[in-house]
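Need tokens for this chain, all 251 residues.
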Amino acid sequence: MKAVITGASSGIGMDMARVLSKMGYDLIITARREDRLKKLADELPTSVTVIPADLSNKENCTHFFEKIKNEDFDFAINNAGFGIFGDFSETPLKKELDMIDLNVTALHILTKKFLEYFENKGKGRLLNVASSAGLMPGGPLMASYYATKAYVVSLTQGIYEELRKRKSPVKISVLCPGPVNTEFNSVAGVSFALKGLDSYKTAEYTIKKALKNKTVIIPGFSIKAANILNKLAPSKIALRIAYKIQKKKNG
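Here are the structure tokens for all 251 residues:
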């Protein structure tokens, strides 16, 4: 068994590498920070191939896949991504475009390539990492980030139905976590009001559900409940509530 994980140098990506390695998977891991990837590889009990890459560059996505396309992997996880906090009129455009390149474009490219690879192989499993943000009507003060994650959720669900309709042996899931204790907070410049979930436990839960073919994976009771309430509330009310919650993130 072998798995590919992007964004494996920290947070959930790193912990999913630990979980899968413990389960006996050999790994191919990528992220920008080679030193962190090598440190992770040294601690894991199975074989780990380290391929440093900045996937926010389209060409690097293609080059990364070309390096691994002859490997016999069964599981691919698109985890690389980051967030930005602030009023849309004030957040820096370049940083937003970099985020879109990584959260949307890179994930789209690799989703396409992984699915083609698995369909040619006749089996395989893909997990896209989104956020509970992707289930909401919008995210004031994190508008661009919420939009990128809505794209991931929508793309994954659409692909799921296409695969189901033609009875494909390839499986796809999307992870939609709420706050998790990772580096995301410091990168995005936020402090969550809700207590974050443990990253390793979230990774364990996610892998378990993905292997059981769960399509939309939502760890944590509070986020599951919030998602149900959000569906019941009028969109404008939900947006006002979201703004108040988001405002608290900036202390």
